[in-house]
Amino acid sequence: MKWFVDHRNLIRHFLVIMIGLLPVAGYATDSLPGIHDPVIIREKGYWYVFGTGRGITVMRSADRRNWKRLPPVFDQPPGWAVKAVSGFKGHIWAPDIAYVRGHYYLFYAVSAFGKNTSCIGVASNKTLDPDSKEYHWLDHGKVIESVPGRDMWNAIDPNLILDEKGTPWLSFGSFWNGIKMVQLDSSLTQPATPQQWYTLAARSRNPVLPDSVAGDAAIEAPFIFHHNNYYYLFVSFDYCCRGVKSTYKVVVGRSKSIIGPYLDRDGVPMTLGGGTLVREGDANWMGIGHNAVFSDDGNDYLLYHGYDAHDNGKSKLWQEKIRWRDDWPEAVIK
Asked: Can you give the pTM of this predicted structure?
């Protein structure tokens, strides 16, 4: 006891330092699974997370805490994607999963990094359980494509949402002129006709930059979530994929119409760079983004990846409860 009393200031100083090094959620970061661009869905007693990776990364959990990796969706790169994107070898980006009319639809992106030589494809399955006899991913191929020199948008980061009438819409986009949306037909495999494309959000881009480069308008990863009377458009600002130098952050706007305009809390249109901050990085997590939103046990949750400052900037899975205040989402940070 005397030793403790004599050294209590030293102990207090040590604890302050150690607490400052703890991750924001309060438990060991090595217990968090590695993931990039996560999306989540539930089937029966399991939660499934899909993410960027070779053949598409898949994980499963009964409690959303202890995760088991499953075989990837594709054991071989889709043939159509190899032909569409030069140099593509099976590393598939930013999947999105939805359950529609008795099937699971998995949208995914193939791209050349830093270019809008990109395509969004879709595959479907009757179940997500790899032990089921009905488990089989049927690839439907390309849904949309962006072409350098032709398109000022980038066909990556897909997100499917059905409006209140059941009409399917696909939002997507990264850099260039921002986040786009198009209505899909009932098959969910191609745009509805006549085609009409909408801009949902954008940031200022240096006009002297050539069309062939991504530019400095750092916005991507749309996710639309319906709550009460509004559609909420979550996007990621700034830069991912730089480890501890990542500057990703999640912002949001809302609209009573699925095609917009989406306004932030100050009334600024997201097409003019608006966006209310939901979550950003800190000394423990350098860059937080590419989020999804899901519901469980009567609560809504924010799902995203963050770069662990205490583990060489590795990208890991995070979940945080959402608190709705005046019909605006706030992350409940532990």
From this structure: 0.90
